[in-house]
């Protein structure tokens, strides 16, 4: 029976092809938005989370400024002073600290001049963290020797910035001569791969910035609860600032690696909910379009409804025929949206890769595809419910009389 | 005594329009023997079609009883009526009432779909009916590609699809020229005579009414 009903629905869709296409567009756009944006945001989330998860649970990050004020924190204005660094170092449960710094400088290599981000990391304290928690591994050469003017370069530096660069080459950073000691393996994002890293002392030498750091990483001693150590660091920093600068509103953020992961996860989650929300509105608007078309279709086919009733169709059969038709709109609209969404997501993935800002992989899960299909099919059925019922409730005599 | 396939007892149909009401059928009673041919005649607007709707279970009376094969259907639910229409009644209309976007065969199959008969049987039965009505070359044509007589023969095939006892026809030759109308009447007569189908038919044509065993004259909603 359903097979015949499908046939009837398909025929009626085909008699008005333009209208059928236009009706589906609403759903297509909604599903397209969900699929493309969700798979991209999942990809971004996946990339960021996998990098964050590499960090050990005993790491603590200390930033100047409030974490909810990203602009000042990462805009570069604020710094941790020498006193702040000392305060963190002496907090109970802190095993070691790694001050980190970065600044864009002009770099010259074999006559080519480019502006590159220079990292300054205390290699004596921090090499271990870089290798184990940040996943920085050497592809060629070796790490800089302490006290020597040596640098390691990210994976993208020899391949894209200074092509052909190899260990042993000489570079000139802000007028100071350095030797490339090694090349790192890719860490998974183009930004980090395009930096040059030197020891913190050398960094200070290059930039002239004598003290302080943009951020620092502390490692909790074994046996200490990381969150406790976070509190200890906060306490020490608070005391120091009050004493040295006379501030009593502390302007720094101390976060365990787990907290950072949680915050990033939350932010991305909220973005995804917003995406689903807006795309759902688009699909619902598409559903209203389906409802409109279905009412028109019921009205045009009053006589056919009368005929079907006269030859023995029960109300449920009439409802089913019209529901199949509106379900078609939903399902095929959804299918179209999924195909377009996948194409767009793949396109964006390739485009972003080409610009090189991130190694993004669009995450197209079967769940997402199935969700898109079921959701659009349901929207079609719900949109068709009232029109189908109005069709089924018609009196056969009146429907037959209708001209 | 022959068995009643249909009996009407004091049938009234009253349409209400707010304050006023219009009685279209005013106490009609008669019965139809199984396998007989009954013609209904009367001036335009006298209520013939309305009466036929009651007989065909398309509508229920405001008052009175309609017995089809011994069962009173006047208080049946919509779905029960649909069941009677599907199994016991075959309709033939003046305006053919075929599905424009279905082929001849698909039109004939439709009533069998609603009775959930198996697919193979449906196709076989539809082809047999269309063949027997001389439409073997028209099976895959749509109504728009067919003549009036051909359309009405498809409608008759459709009415026979579920092998009903009663065929109800409302001016089946009204839209056809006299020659074609005659052929359609021959088909209906054969079904009545040779297959024992009860035939209840509304007509304006006295020559057709002459063929019937019984003629019911209606005027102003009453039997004359
Ligand atoms: N749904 C309705 N509401 C109100 N009045 C109706 C309705 N259906 C039929 N009528 C009225 O009932 C009367 C009888 O109509 P009916 O169609 O039965 O006439 P008829 O005898 O078949 O006429 P004709 O020979 O022209 O087909 C008409 O006056 C018509 O206007
Ligand atoms: Mg009439």
From TrEMBL, chain A:
Transmembrane segments: 21-40, 267-296, 317-344, 364-386
Keywords: Cell membrane, Membrane, Transmembrane, Transmembrane helix
UniProt KW 4Fe-4S keyword: no
Keyword Membrane found: yes
GO molecular function terms attached to this record: transmembrane transporter activity
Membrane topology designation: Multi-pass membrane protein
ABC3 transporter permease C-terminal domain residues: 277-396
Protein location: Cell membrane
Residue span(s) of domain MacB-like periplasmic core: 20-234
InterPro entries listed in its UniProt record: ABC3_permease_C, MacB_PCD, Macrolide_Exporter_MacB
GO CC terms, sorted: plasma membrane
Source species, domain of life: Bacteria
Similarity field: Belongs to the ABC-4 integral membrane protein family.
Protein's UniProt name: ABC transporter permease
Organism (species): Candidatus Nealsonbacteria bacterium RIFOXYB1_FULL_40_15
Automatic annotation (TrEMBL), chain B:
InterPro entries per UniProt: AAA+_ATPase (IPR003593), ABC_transporter-like_ATP-bd (IPR003439), ABC_transporter-like_CS (IPR017871), ABC_transpr_LolD-like (IPR015854), MacB-like_ATP-bd (IPR017911), P-loop_NTPase (IPR027417)
This protein's GO CC annotations: membrane protein complex; plasma membrane
Keyword Chloroplast: no
Residue stretches making up the ABC transporter domain: 6-224
Entry keyword annotation includes Cell membrane: no
Pfam families: ABC_tran
Keyword tags: ATP-binding, Nucleotide-binding, Transport
Any one GO molecular function term: transmembrane transporter activity
The protein, known as: ABC transporter ATP-binding protein
Highest taxon above the source species: Bacteria
